Predict the structure.
Amino acid sequence: MSMKKSDLDKQLGQKIGGRMKATAIPTRFAQGAADAPDRREQRRRDAEAGLVAFACKLPMPIVERLRERSTGHPGGINGLLAELLEKALR
């Protein structure tokens, strides 16, 4: 049984889409992004470390100051926020 041209095009598009999903990100553009853990693995690592996601809304000037200070902090913005909250809650 022959297929319509539109069905053939649709099938070809699905094949191409599947190939694109299966290929890794080239290191030339992403510099090691393929080595980064997926979300499930990252959640598992965070849970083992005792970390919990905590979202809040802050005014933009405070966020800008936090970003500036976090560039030199060894733990990044997460480490800086943990340190500042620990000091504030004492």
